[in-house]
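Hi everyone,

Forwarding the result from last night's run.
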Amino acid sequence: MKIIVTSLFVQDQDKALAFYTEMLGFVKKHDIPMGKFRWIALVSSDEQEGTELILEPNDHPAAKEYQKKIFTDGIPATMFGVADIHKEYNRLLEIGVHFTMKPTKMGEFTIAVFDDTCGNLIQMIHK
């Protein structure tokens, strides 16, 4: 068994699509109309047949509440691995990404946390 799809609640699918593709460098794999929303699937630019990230609208009240509570409590909604956390941190800072935690050594790992502007905190980890 393996993970093939995971989702992330977002407040605005268009804004999230722009942030995740233009700022983070993910690649749009699917963008399918589904009523008033869309099935938007992104993949890593270097692993285009890998796990898909779905930009899920937070239209349901439970989704909105969940997203708001974990954001307020400072809990990242998901984690992305990077080869060089300091290089990626500096790249993202230069293009205006707001970090709530700069790269910090935590045992054998180094992590950083940023705001995706769509209602989520995202953790990066040096893999």
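The helical segments are 13-23, 61-72, 85-94.

Cheers,
N.
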